[in-house]
Amino acid sequence: MKQAAHVLLVDDDVSLLKLLGMRLESRGYRVTTAESGREALDNLDQTRPDLVLSDLRMDEMDGMALFQQIQKRMPGLPVIILTAHGSIPDAVSATRQGVFSFLTKPVDRDELFSAIDDALRQTANASADGDDAWRAEIITRSPHMERVLEQARMVAGSDVSVLVTGPSGSGKELLANAIHRASSRAEKPFVAINCGALPEQLLESELFGHAKGAFTGAISQHEGLFQAADGGTLFLDEIGDMPLTLQVKLLRALQERQIRPLGSTTSIPIDVRIISATHRDLDKAMREGDFREDLFYRLNVVNLRLPPLKERAEDVPLLAKHLVTQAAERHKPFVKGFSPEALNLLASSAWPGNVRQLVNVVEQCVALTSTPIIPEALVSQALMAEENALPSFNEARAGFERSYLIKVLKITEGNVTQAARIAGRNRTDFYKLLGRHDLEPSAFKPGAEQTG
């Protein structure tokens, strides 16, 4: 391992840099040197080191500032800090932030080589399972996404519950599946269900199963998804939309590690790992009484947040090229890709629908193109079509709800009691509706400046 290891050595003391470099090379390491943090960062992508060894006190950019930049560009790359001004508080602070080791100069030769070997060994162990097949479906070069994936890889090794948050279309199920594939449960089933897509009784039956005759139409026994996922992973998508009564039953199942099918008197032991996801603000839902706090803490042992596509714009060309290749294989093998102008337009778009919207745009472009290289005009046309597309039922309902609430608040000049009476709702339910749509009654009172 150490014969092939590549160390990036950073120090603004040129004589010390040369001396330490010779010492490392004599040990068999391949060494690249940099006389400043800026030079180290400039070399980082080209040199792709296995480890960075940096002085702490340097002009312009010190060792800790360099470490923070390295974390953004290459998460997981081990960094060892050297300093002649070592102190226990500095060391504690550095290691808490993720620095692998903090050594005081003049550094002991054996101590230095031991720290380097330990860092390289730990990095090797982290990837000892081989390749990146577990994350193969997630295409990215975004530092933000790489940090999320690094956390996902670490948490996959344990059996704790994970809550994946992020906007609709950002790839929450893909990440959940990747965690499953990186876990010890990878050979067992990965089962997914959208908790917001089914009526309450049907959702309960799908999750827990039902006995014959449990309800009208239950003509035979049905095994639920908890049983189907036994030994594997159950992914509960849009958990924030689960009805409260069903949240109670889910919490009991997770606490007792057993389920009772609808209409049955027998409990069945379960062995599943739970990964859940939502685009909703669950803190807000808890405050409004729409989501149980005890269930939240049971599900949110580890939280992974997926960024919207606009926060990982560097991934858009990469994703577009990957998606166009897939779509071309299925439909039009002569299509080779996008023109540079078309890629620029894709990269500069806002993508409110995130990766899911990008998939739709690429599919449209491949379906409509008659040339091997998709032109900018076709991308523009597909983007406009997406903007004018019919919204989903949930989006349409949310839009109607907000418009309706604004109308009744305007009619009643912000009087919640009167507005709730017109809407046929009690005040508590009406306030919940207002909170869901971020509407403030006081904004509709006479003389108030309305923003809704």
UniProtKB/TrEMBL annotation:
The entry's keywords: ATP-binding, DNA-binding, Nucleotide-binding, Phosphoprotein, Transcription, Transcription regulation, Two-component regulatory system
SMART domains: AAA (SM00382), REC (SM00448)
Domain Response regulatory span(s) in chain numbering: 6-120
Residue ranges of domain Sigma-54 factor interaction in the record: 138-367
Pfam families (UniProt xref): AAA_lid_14 (PF25601), Response_reg (PF00072), Sigma54_activat (PF00158)
Record-linked Gene3D superfamilies: 1.10.8.60, 3.40.50.2300, Homeodomain-like, P-loop containing nucleotide triphosphate hydrolases
CDD domains tied to this protein: AAA (cd00009)
GO BP, sorted A to Z: phosphorelay signal transduction system; regulation of DNA-templated transcription
GO molecular function, one term: DNA binding
SUPFAM superfamilies: CheY-like (SSF52172), Homeodomain-like (SSF46689), P-loop containing nucleoside triphosphate hydrolases (SSF52540)
Residue positions, PTM 4-aspartylphosphate: 55
Record's protein name: Two-component system, NtrC family, response regulator GlrR
Organism annotation: Modicisalibacter xianhensis
